[in-house]
Every structure is written in structure tokens, then in C-alpha cells.
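@channel sequence for tomorrow's demo:
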Amino acid sequence: MNICFVINKMLQHASGGYKMVFEYANRLTERGHSVSILFFNEYFLKKYGMPEWVRRKAAIFLTHIGPVWFKLDRKVRLISTDENDFMSKVGNPDAIIYTAVESVYNGEKYFKDIKNKTYFIQGYENWAVSDEKLVHTYSMGFKNIVISEWLRGIVSEYTGKEPVLIKNPVDVECYRPVIPYEKRKKHSISLLYNQMLVKGFKYAFEAIKRLRVLYPDLSVKAFGTGKRPDCFPDYIQYTRYASQKKTIEIYNLTSIFLCASVDEGYGLTGLEAMACGTALVSTSYKGVLEYASDGMNALLSPVKDVNGLVRNVQRLFDDDDLRIRIARNGVESVRKNLNWEKAVDKFESVIVNGR
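C-alpha cells (generated this afternoon):
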């Protein structure tokens, strides 16, 4: 089958939503499908103020190179809308997969007559368009796939139909414990640095500062795509543009992964950390509840509750048996419930068979 993913502009930095699209593209290619990804690059590199013809050439070049932070199968065709003949390169797809609200509105200008279309919904994306325009996309006649129970409820409410639920899995052959739980530095934390307010980093940062007073030997490993903030103290080791290999190393070198998200559709880094045997301490934002259960495979506290984050980290720092139990349960729950083969089976079935 000729499958075309329609996505927003090419990103030069890691993104959980893009990562899921790239993973499915790779795995569908491995199953014998012809897969392309069409990037709507109208605004890609615009902020640099270069002449339009230069911007277009640069966008085409960088699109063909592909994401430097993810290893895409070479058979996956990467196409930029900046190419004059981009539609001929897409060819005659048997199936279109929209991956974001903007990709729906952009893609329908070109693929309106194609009947086999799937909408891969990874969040309630009202930061991009109005609520009205967003919920309208749920009822445009596509086969809707959602990644979480809470999204399933929203899409069902607006369409009167149950979308297909496929929770984001993790490649447990890559994301796995390498360093034994008991051999990791006891007072060590890893976390994602992201400036978006919904990621709640300011609450995690405040918790870390308080924990440093309680545990002077505390070491922190942070990673993200932005520049190292000036406010970071020396005890925070920061990695910008961490590769998959590097993030796996970071997870394995730390005892606890700290997440203070306020509102997030899923939270892939927390799941990856769990798969690596890093005990998860998180706020109980709606996305994390798709894979984390308080007291079983994670310790959860209310959103924006810095005291709760500090208290839960203390519990794990002061009780090795509890930390190891939480970490071990995290690994087992990911391996058992979030399997890539099962996810691709279901994803492929929706595209090919409509269910």
C-alpha cells in the first residue's frame, strides 16, 4: 500500500509527537508498505529572514536530509511542499494519514478526493486553532486514532463515534535498564527541560532547589532543545539536543525521573524513563494517567504542587526498597502493556481495513 503521512513543517529538534509519526513510518515500511512523509514547510526557516528562494532551497535540502535526532528508514520518502513537483512525488497514495490539526486543513487542499484517510490525534491542539476549528476536524469523516483515554472521550463526545485507541508504545529493545537499580547514584534525578508553560518546568526546578538543600550531594541531569538557562546551577548537567542513545544513558545513570507537567496529552519521556528502570515521580496530569499508577509504578502528586514533588522524591531517596519496587514495576508495566508490535498491528489494520 502507498501511504502518505501529512505533517507540519520539518523540525530540527526532538519532538514526542513527531517521533511517534517517524516510528510508525519506519515500522510500516518494514512491513512492505511504500511510505512517504509530506512536510508543509511554508513557514519553515521564516524567522531567519532570508530571501524566499534561499529559504525554499534550504527547506528542501534539510527535509531530504531528514531529522538529525531520529534515524528514519532510508526507504521512507521525505517530501517538502517547497518542491515545485511535490504532488507528483507524493504520487497516488492509497492512504493519507493526517498527524495534526494544521495538517488536516493544509492537506485537504490537495487530498480532498482521496477516500481512505486517517487522523492520528495525539493531543487537544487548541493552541494552533480555535476550539471550534479543532473539534470540526474530528467530524470530517476520517478514521480517528487517539493515543489516550481522555482524548477518546473528547473525540467521542464531538463525533458520536468511538475512535480507535492506540496508546503510544516504547521500543523496549532500546529503552531498557542497563545499569542495575541498586547501582545507580542514590540522590540523582533526570528531567526534561522545556520552556512551554504546560510542561511545568518551573515547578520541577523549584523542587530540585529545595531537594538540593536536603541532599547536598544531589546530582541532576537535564536535557532539552533550548539553550542552557542562565539560572541553572553547576550541579545541573545539561545536554542540548540529546540523541536517543544519550537520553537512554541519562535515564540509566539516574535513580528518579522528575516530571511536573501541568497539561500534556501523554508524556513520552516519563514512559521512556520508566522503561529504563528510572523511578517516575510526576504530577498527576491527565496524560501520565495513561501509563502511571500512584504507588504501583510511579509516585504522583497534584499538578503545581511543589511540596508533593519534593515529598515523593524524598520517599524514594530514603527508601531504597520502595524505589526499586517502583522502578521494577515501571519496567514490567511498559513491557507488558505498551508493545510496539501490537500497536503497529492495530495501526495498520485501521489504515488497511478501516478498523
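heads up for whoever presents: The chain has a mean pLDDT of 95.
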